[in-house]
Amino acid sequence: MRNATVLVIAAIVFLLQPAAAQQAPPASSASASSAQLAQKMNAYVGCINRLSARSYESRDRYFSWAAKSGPTGKERIIYGTYTCLLYGDEVWSDIVTWLHYGLVEAEELGVTQSNADEMTKSQAPAVQRLLGVSGDLGSRLGLDNKWLVAAIKAGGNYGEIFERNVGKASPLKLERGLNATWSKGGLMYAIPFK
Fold it and tell me: Which residues, other chains included, contact 107 with Cβ-Cβ below 8 Å and sequence gap of 6+?
């Protein structure tokens, strides 16, 4: 008897599903907002899924030439690291791109959230350019030359941000893997700050 009841309930649910799917939901601004948000999130997830495959292909290409001649530095571009931004906002796109490069470069050069201020006194030209002591990258982006010092002090370098949000110090406990810097076998690299 119990099995028959379960089958009847399952049959009713099955029969009602197509009818419910055909009925249009009541129009409201909340459901319209939810639909727009769902559409945007689906587009974002689709973008990430397509780009993940390119990341792995890019890593394979990198290791195919690196195995022959050895890594020679950062002069090779590894396609696969992407940022999704609103089309047409080139200024913001430039800022986000250079922020990413700066956070990765900061990790490579040992600039952290706790030592960013003292690293501005470094005599290393790469550190000076990165932190705005020399060069004019900040002003070319429409920002103060010390913009990256402020960003690093606020959140840390790329490695610190990764560890805190999705890495070993987070509930997710993810390995760095491809998110490690290029010098540690990952895909993260920054073009030189010049």
Answer: 157, 158, 159, 160, 181, 188
Could you give the angle at the alpha carbon of 128 between the alpha carbons of 125 and 129, nearest 5°? 90
**Domain residue extents for the chain:** 34-84, 89-194
Tens digit of each residue's pLDDT (9 = 90 or more) over 29-73: 666 667 777 776 666 566 655 556 666 676 676 667 666 655 555
Residue in 118, 85, 89, 86 with CA at minimum distance from that of residue 100: 85
Is the whole model's pTM more than 0.70, yes or no?
A: no
Neighbours of 191 (CB within 10 A): 13
- Spell out, as residue ranges, where the chain has pLDDT lower than 50: 1-25, 75-80
